[in-house]
Design a protein that fits this description.
wza like fold; 2 domains; single chain; 5 helices; Outer membrane lipoprotein wza fold like; alpha+beta; three-stranded antiparallel sheet; five-stranded mixed sheet
């Protein structure tokens, strides 16, 4: 009887020990499983798109070098490669001429910038071997008319082909209440000569085409 009690006691003590050895050690509770956060999307690399070209060349020169015809009051830049003394910015005078070292007066009005460059290069061959000349239009002034006096918006107006007196005045917002329509006139300069052209404004409004004068570059409409 005593032996059985000892066996039972031993069994009671060893059972929890065996249980502790067989069971795996408790591990810290794992964090709850959640869906992985989406990683920041990588920027999509597109093929290099063509970038708009940016040119330091003035827009009129770039767009009109082959077709624009120079006129009085236009400003051009003449560049002769490796000849800084011959390179400068020049105003086309009212007589249509420019003045250059070595060459003196050169006619510019009536030529495109490319034609003028060729003409200058041909003239410079007397002094320079194989001159490289470029002409850039930097200020386009000759293709404008000007409104002054009693007009709502005075100043230059871009001259469009066939623009008439009434169209130019309309672009300027019309006459002010103080404008003297009976004494209007157009100032025009041709070949260095100034001409004053009286205008019958009301007759032009009534449809008399001979009074609705077609304007020329550089004309100035004066409303007293």
């Amino acid at each position: 009887m005593k032996w059985k009690s000892l066996v039972l006691l031993a069994f009671t003590i060893s059972a929890p020990l065996c249980h502790g050895q067989d069971a795996p050690a408790a591990s810290p509770a794992a964090p709850p499983v959640t869906a992985p956060a989406s990683a920041p999307s990588e920027p999509v690399i597109q093929p290099d798109a063509p970038k708009p070209s940016v040119s330091t060349t003035p827009a009129p020169a770039l767009a009109l070098a082959g077709s624009y015809v120079l006129g009085p009051t236009d400003v051009i830049t003449v560049t002769v490669l490796k000849e800084t003394t011959l390179s400068s910015s020049l105003l086309v005078r009212p007589d249509g001429m420019i003045t250059m070292p070595l060459l003196g007066d050169v006619k510019a009005a009536g030529l495109t910038p490319l034609q003028l460059a060729d003409d200058i290069a041909a003239r410079l061959k007397k002094y320079i071997q194989d001159p490289n000349v470029s002409v850039i239009l930097t200020q386009m002034n000759s293709k404008k008319v000007f409104l002054i006096g009693e007009i709502t918006k005075v100043g230059p107006v871009e001259l469009t082909p066939g623009m008439t007196l009434l169209e130019a005045i309309a672009n300027g917002g019309g006459l002010t209440p103080y404008g003297n329509a009976k004494r209007m006139y157009i100032l025009r300069t041709e070949d260095g000569k100034h001409t004053k052209i009286p205008v019958h404004y009301k007759a032009a409004l009534k449809g008399y085409s001979d009074q609705n004068i077609t304007l020329k570059p550089g004309d100035t409409i004066v409303v007293p």
